[in-house]
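Friendly challenge for the regulars: who can give me the structure tokens for this chain first? No prize, just bragging rights.
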Amino acid sequence: MSRIDQDVLCTWEDVSSQKKAITVIKNFTGIADTAHDAICSLNPERKITYWNPTAVNLYGYTADEAAGNLLEELISIRKNSELHQAIQKVFINGEKIVNMITRTQGKKGQAIEVLINLFPFIDDTGQTAGACMIAKDITETKRNRSKIQEDEHFISHILDTTPDIIYIMDLHTRQIIYANRQVASDLGYSREQILSMKNPILDIMHPEDKELMKELMKDHMNKITLQVSENKVLEIQYRLKAADGHFEWYCDRNAVFKRNKSRSPVEKIGICQNITVRKKDEELRKTTQEIINQAEEVVNLGSWEYEPTSSSMRWSDGMYRLFNLEKGRHVWPGIYREYTPDTDKELVEQMVQKIENAIPFEETIRLVNTDNDQKIVKIKAITQKSNGGKAIRIIGVDLDITDQLRAGEEISRLYETVLHKNAELRILSEEIRTFNHPFAHYVQETIHRLYTSLEHMVSKDGTNISDSSRGNIRRAQASIQYMKLIVEDIKNYFNLYDFIEEIVPVDPNPILNIVVQRLEKKLQQLQVKVEFSRLPKFPTHPSLFEQLVFHIIETALKMRDIRLPMQIDISYSDISEKIDHPLARPDTSYTVVSFSGNGMGFDSEEIEKLLDLSYHLSPDRKSKTPGIGLAICKKIMLMHNGFITIEPESRQKSTIHCYFPQTVF
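First reply, four minutes later:
Bragging rights claimed.
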């Protein structure tokens, strides 16, 4: 409005709206100056007209540096970028841009992640008179979110790959609210089997652990509930049955996971770990230690170790027994000085220094324990070294060799005695061998002459001899003939001592044929048959085996029942199982050659006596025997490291078994 008065032009203008706008701007500026987000205002040319303190801290530009600059240039907004297009929409279309995440740049070129909100200033005519940008710094938030995602991925990877079972339990409901997997599935149970279980833990728990587990769980839950410190860890061990029937050891370690506002525990976290291998290792270590303790006690030894860095020495139970000291008493290397006689002081002093400096050694010293019992102890020590070659400890064994030395002295004395006796036996053996041959020859010659003389008497002077005298002469001739056989057998028996040939595997079949041919005339006269199947090779000597077969058949002929037809069958068998006989060797296989005769009877009470040489030669024996042939057979089998048995099947049939080891000893 205007007016002309007295050459004066007056003009009126309504400025209430401008004042109102100034007031609004002042109020906006007051609020923006205290905001925690960066706020700036732009004029229609998109130049900065306001730059709050938070924007100064965020981007590094002062308000004066920012004022009058294009926003795109100041914070490096690329043309046609998402933020550049958003600003276009605000100024051209008057749109609002809400919660747009983008990247801007600070004064020092640093990248700044921000959450942008843009809104226009609209004038009375509806035109965009400017704009306001609010930027929230989310660089740290985004970094934290990324870290959280990485941690979640890492934890997820651990839960997926760890052999342990991790779970979280609600302490009020006793229900598992999280578990990375079911323990029953690790034990081989199918999903259907697990679903059919009332309690996947108690249903497969070892019976011995079940009741104990309930009591422990009750006590365990009380302790968990009463816990104040989250650092307290409680542990329970138990056994679970796998799907295939075997049991595995598990260990639960639990701690408070979550508390309510009153600091009472409401959730616990647990790690269920399979400790079967650890349990087996513990049992093995325990068993090994028990074996070591028993071994130390049996052989009178002890073991020790010493660490130079800590000057600590540890003894086994055997060491305390060796010194007759109370178990657990403090020990150190110099303790040897206190239990050593004066004669060994210098040697022991050197040994102690070697222990203290971890130098390996081997010494024999004398100890006098608390009972004044003197012992001779052999000590051997070795060092354990680090990767760098430095000695970290020395380990030793003390062995009481007192009894061994005494036993050695006694053995030496006995050995000298044995050598002396052996020399005497060799002289005696030579005397017997020297005596045997001429004596046997002399006796045989004398018997022959005596028998011939009696025969001559009967044949030449028969007419002058009465019948009773002739009978006496014939009985005398029979006795002389029996004596001749006994002398021959004794000669053969002692000839075995001269045998020095090697026993090796041979074919016995040709030898059987030779023996049968030797006895062919007698077999035909007595109408006795000898049958044998083909025998395999086994360790023997042709000469020994021939004598064995000859004497067994000869004995069978002497023991035959003349009223029955007789047949001798020779067979074999292989035996590898254990044989109930005092001379049978363990873990030894035998070839058994058996002689069976159906007219050959033995008195069961005299079986063992027939194999004994002394029985046949005893002056107290009142009846005749079949000779010492079986005693010779026993001697031959002993020379093979074998043995002979007689098995009577009836009074008219028996079987003689000869056991030949298949291994030459």
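Residues 579 and 585 are 8 Å apart (CA to CA). The chain has five domains: 16-143, 162-274, 281-400, 406-478, 499-661. Your move, everyone else.
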